[in-house]
Amino acid sequence: MTSRTAKPGRPAALVVLPLIVLALVFGTLPMWTDDYWIRVWTGVAMWAGLAASWNIIGGYAGYISFGHVAFFGIGAYATAILMQPGYDWNFFLTLPVGAVIAGLFALIVGWPTLRLRGAYFAIATWALAEALAQIINTLDFTGGSFGLSTPGNPSTWFFYYAMLIATILIYLLTFLLFERSRFGYKVKAVRDNEAAAQSLGINTTAVKLQAFMLSAALPAVLGGINAYWITFINPQSVLSGEVTDQMVVMTLIGGLGHLWGPALGAFVLYLASTWLGAEYGGSTSYIAMIGALLAIIILFLPDGLIGLAPRARGMKLVRKMLGLSGAPGGGGAGTAPPGGRP
């Protein structure tokens, strides 16, 4: 008790100082590294944002979506189409259009599919994403299977900061809505016990739809930035199921339902796959290495890498083995607050 009252500012400092350091590092990164690493970190930012958007429906709302790539693709195609000759929209104006279209699409498909649970919802969302890819593959204004090109922009700085700012805003919005608002408590209540939440007067259908629409609009923005960044898109590049797979895996590795879990998972998995691909890309051995890494994390850290944090849920034995447990009475693993999330 004495140690906690003697240093009341310490917890705030432990949060603020790392954030200041991270802001300085990532804010100035293009000034002290080359184009290759700028592109790598642009990819990290994009995947961190995508994983965070999936975490809204998968972690906070408790619905495992295997079709989230549909919203990423909608944003990509909205930007690519509106920037074609004849339309010539400003790039920044295309992003909210893609987000609105993705949100409306989520509203339409979410009304029936959110009545499903578990594997049924996962299969339904996967089927809808596959159907969307096939439809876009046959339309003339989307370029069909040939795809669409976007105007080139040679500045790696532009896309790095665009992706970084978009991802920061996604995490800020997630924090405000799901960690510090009544809406977030409602979403978690519906996730934990929908019948009990409904008995308390919560409109569970509206809450689930709102969470689903938000989790759809955010990846659409990142999809639009990505379409302008890579200058060419087709259904295989922006509507592939592998995009959703990576969102899911990154979130599970980092920590499902935690604010910073998706960022941690994206950081580890994207950098690991980039390095292993560069070192062992001449063979398929790097794929086995990535698989082994994922298996180890899932086996020993079922709560994700965020479980190594001193106040995270569970994983007391692993933290003790790694020497990460707090001292007795010092706020270690045994003093996690109700709810368990850091």
Tally of extended strands? 2
Q: State the secondary-structure class.
A: mainly alpha
Tell me the radius of gyration. 21 Å
Shape: globular
Number of helices: 15
CATH class bucket: Mainly Alpha
CATH hierarchy: architecture: Orthogonal Bundle
> Which strand order does the major sheet show?
1-2
C-alpha end-to-end distance: 20 Å
List SSEs in N-to-C order: HHHHHHEHHHHEHHHHH
Tally of distinct domains:
1
| CATH-derived topology | ABC transporter involved in vitamin B12 uptake, BtuC
Helix share, percent: 55-70%
Report the uncertain regions: 1-9, 314-322, 325-342
How can the largest sheet be summarized?
2 strands, antiparallel
Strand content: under 5%
Q: Could you report the average pLDDT, rounded to the nearest whole number?
A: 84
Question: Which descriptors would you attach to this protein?
Answer:
342 residues; mainly alpha; ABC transporter involved in vitamin B12 uptake, BtuC; two-stranded antiparallel ribbon; 2 strands; 1% strand; globular; disordered C terminus
